[in-house]
Design goal:
By secondary structure, this protein is α+β, with helices and mostly antiparallel strands. The chain has two domains: 17-255, Alpha-Beta Complex (Nucleoside Triphosphate Pyrophosphohydrolase), CATH 3.90.79; 275-329. The protein is 37% helix and 21% strand. It is built from seven helices and twelve strands. β7 and β8 (169-170) form a beta hairpin. The chain is flat and about 80 Å long. 27% of the residues are buried.
């Protein structure tokens, strides 16, 4: 992690100035805590998710975002739940020939980096956006999207080495350019670290033939693992890694379910196309009869519901009359 251009003091453990966001503002649009929310951080705007851009030019509405951002010394934010430290969390993914995805993992060395995560295994790389990462718009607002991109490239250069098949190092910019996609963000209140951080999660599809290995001394290389394997052994992983693995597991399961449905639909279409004209007519008549029967059942349910509603109204009116003494119970 870079500390260039940062004030230093022998009495302050974390002297660097970093980017943070107002907790109350971030929390109000989080659908479920301790899950990955699948839309970019810079869409955290007043009024929810629908007003994502300024009128006309399709640029993120930085003026609204900036009302909730601040740059402050990290030391004062470490145990301050009023503000969340923004922390990009980058996952590197290798797509295999069989369609499976593997991600490089590492172990956090005790006494290096975030001490509250000592000894945990991780699939995410990154660090806090510092002064040198911050980009400014023409309106002198923080350009959050560019700031995150600057931070990801700097932190990747500091923490990760990319090696080709001959062992030659590949520049991080070459790997990141066009291959990084932001998945969303995580606000995890389940532990001490998560309560004061907002993880900005992105995935980088590593080009074929390139190997990912650690550079920082605070990490030990771990094995390549699938998201399913990480989810199965999640007790060994830090919380954000568990959440990302679960998210991918659910997404892959849903994709598999949709694939089976699509396959069944294609098979049904092929079966219909192979029918004779008489068989097609019979098929259509059968399905027409099914639709008519479903409509009849819905109509019957609506009539039953209306009758029950009328009975409830009648009972309520009678109870009111009894209370008023208009009729005998």
């Amino acid at each position: 992690m870079s500390t260039s251009q940062q004030p230093t003091s022998p009495h302050i453990k974390y002297p660097e100035f970093i980017l943070a966001i107002d907790t109350a503002y971030a929390a109000k649009i989080v659908e479920k805590e301790s899950e990955l929310v699948p839309f970019p951080l810079w869409t955290l705007l007043d009024g929810g998710k629908e007003h994502l851009y300024d009128t006309g030019d399709q640029r993120p509405n930085s003026a609204i975002v900036n009302r909730h951002l601040l740059v402050r010394q990290r030391q004062g934010l470490e145990k301050n739940p009023a503000h969340l430290q923004i922390l990009p969390y980058t996952v590197f993914a290798h797509l295999r020939d069989d369609g499976s995805i593997e991600v490089p993992t590492y172990f956090r060395v005790k006494g290096e980096g975030e001490e509250r995560l000592d000894g945990k295994q991780s699939l995410g790389w990154g660090g806090h956006p510092e002064l040198e990462d911050i980009a400014w718009s023409e309106q002198n607002d923080i350009d959050l999207r560019q700031t995150i991109e600057n931070n990801v490239e700097r932190e990747t250069n500091e923490e990760v080495r990319f090696l080709d098949r001959d062992g030659n190092e590949v520049d991080a910019h070459v790997v990141l350019n066009g291959n990084r996609h932001e998945l969303g963000f995580i606000y995890d209140t389940g532990d001490e670290v998560g309560r004061v951080h907002l993880a900005v999660v992105s995935i980088v599809h590593v080009p074929p033939g390139i190997r990912v290995t650690k550079r920082e001394k605070g990490h030990l290389d771990g094995p390549l693992m699938t998201f399913a394997a990480i989810a199965a052994d999640e007790k060994f992983f830090e919380p954000w890694s568990r959440i990302v693995a679960r998210f991918h597991g659910e997404a892959l399961a849903k994709a598999h379910e949709n694939l089976l449905k699509a396959q069944a639909s294609l098979e049904e279409i092929a079966r219909i196309q192979a029918m004779t004209d008489e068989e097609k007519a019979a098929y259509l008549e059968q399905h027409r009869a099914q639709v008519v029967e479903q409509a009849r059942q819905i109509s019957a349910l609506q009539e039953t519901a209306a009758s029950q509603h009328q009975q409830l109204q009648d009972a309520a009116e009678r109870n009111a009359q009894i209370l008023n003494g208009d009729v005998q119970a």
